[in-house]
Amino acid sequence: MFDDLHSDALGEGRKRDSGRHRERPLADREVPLGPPSTTIPDAVHAWLDGTTPERDARRGEWSRDVDFWKRLDDDLAKRRHMRTPAHLSAQIMAAIPQHAPQVITPWWRREFVVTPSSAIVTAAALMAVAAAGAVALMR
Amino acid sequence: MRTTEPELLVDQDDSDQRIIQRVLAGDRDEFTVLITRYSDPLYRHALCMTGSPDVAEDILQLSFIKAYQHLAEVRGRFDAWVFRIVANGCKDWLKNIRRSHLSYDEDDQPSGYATPEEELDRTELRSDLDIALSSLPASLREAFVMKHVEGRSYEEMADLLGTTVGALKMRVHRAREALQALLEEKYA
After folding, report:
1. Residue B177 · residue A33 · CB < 8 Å
2. Residues contacting A71, CB < 8 A, separation 6+
3. pLDDT tens digits along B125-142
4. Fewer CB atoms inside 10 A, N or C side of chain B?
5. Contact A3, A18 (CB under 8 A)
6. Across A1-66, where does the E strand assignment appear?
7. Dihedral angle computed from the Cα positions of residues A95, A97, A98 and A102, in that order, rounded to the nearest 10 degrees
8. CB within 8 Å: A102 and B186
9. Nearest C-alpha in A relative to B125
C-alpha cells in the first residue's frame, strides 16, 4: 500500500505524516510504504490482547496510550453490537434459487447401470487391450 | 480492553449439519435458520471491511446465495466456510475500488448517546476511524476488525484465515500502531 492517505479529514498530525512521505517521488522508492505508524509498548499490546491487566499497561508514559485506546474502544463497542438490517434475511431468501441446491456426486461414487450393449463394448475394449498387450510382450 | 465473545464460536456444528441436510433434501426455507444464525457477525465483518452498509448488504446477500448454491460442498463447520466466502467477497470488493472516503450512513444506525454534543463528538470519531481503517492494507484491516470488533481469539483467526498466530499478532499490532498514528493527534 502506498501513502496516498487523505489529508483533509483527520488532524494536523496526519497531515504532517502525509507531507513527510511525499518528500520522495513514488517511483524512487524501493518498497511500497505502509500507513504512518507509531510504536505502541508491548505492555499496551498485551493489555489490548487481554493478557495483562490495565494497571500494568498504565506504567510510565503509557497511560496516554491506554486512554487513547479506551476512547477508541467506546466506538468499537458500538460496532460490536451492530445487527443485520431486518429486511436482509427476506431479501436473501427471495434471491436464492427456488430449487434445492444441486448435489454434485463425484464420478467414483456415482451409480452406473450395466446394459447389454455397454457390457459388449466394455468386453470388446478389454479384449483389444489384452491382445495389444500380448502382441507387445511377444515381440 | 473488553471484547465480546464471538458468536461464531458457539458449537452448532451438528445442528448446522442437520439443517444443511434438510435444505439439500428440498426444504429451502430451512436456509433462513442459517442466515439468521450467522448474519450478524458476518454483516459486522463486511461493514467494517467496506465502510458502507449498502456494500456490506450486497456482499452478504451474494455470499449467502453462493453458500446456498454450493451447500452440498460444505465440509466441516458451516460458519467458518461461510465466513471465508464473505471475507473473500470483501477482499474482492476492496481490490476493485479505489480507496475513497466512505462513511456510515448515520441514519442507519441507532443513536445511544445522551447529548447532541456527545453525539457529534462520537460521530466524528466513528467517521475518522472509518477513514483511518480504510487507509490500512486489507490484511491489516481484516486482522484488526476480527480482533477488536468481532472479538475473536488469535487461534480462531488463524483457523479461519489459514495463517499463523504469530503472523496475525503482527498484523494486529501493525494495524493498531497505524491507527494510533493516524488518530492520536486528534483523540489522545
Report:
1. no
2. B125, B187
3. 667 888 899 889 999 999
4. C
5. yes
6. none
7. -160
8. no
9. A75
User: From A32, which residue of chain B is nearest by alpha-carbon distance?
Assistant: B137
Phi-psi region of A41 (alpha: psi -120 to 50; beta: other; left: phi over 0): beta
Q: With contact defined as beta carbons under 8 Å apart, do B88 and A120 qualify? A: no
Q: Are B132 and B48 in contact (CB under 8 A)?
A: no
Mean pLDDT of chain B: 82
pTM of the entire predicted model? 0.68
Which residue ranges of chain A lie beneath pLDDT 70?
1-36, 105-106, 109-110
Name the amino acid, one letter, at B94: L
* Model confidence pLDDT, tens digit, residues B142-178: 999 999 999 999 999 999 999 999 999 999 999 999 9
Q: What is the ipTM of this complex?
A: 0.73
Q: Are A65 and B176 in contact (CB under 8 A)?
A: no
How many angstroms separate the Cα of B104 from the Cα of each of A85, B127, B128, B131, B159?
A: 14, 7, 11, 10, 30
How many CA atoms lie within 13 Å of B65's alpha carbon, on the beta-carbon side? 16
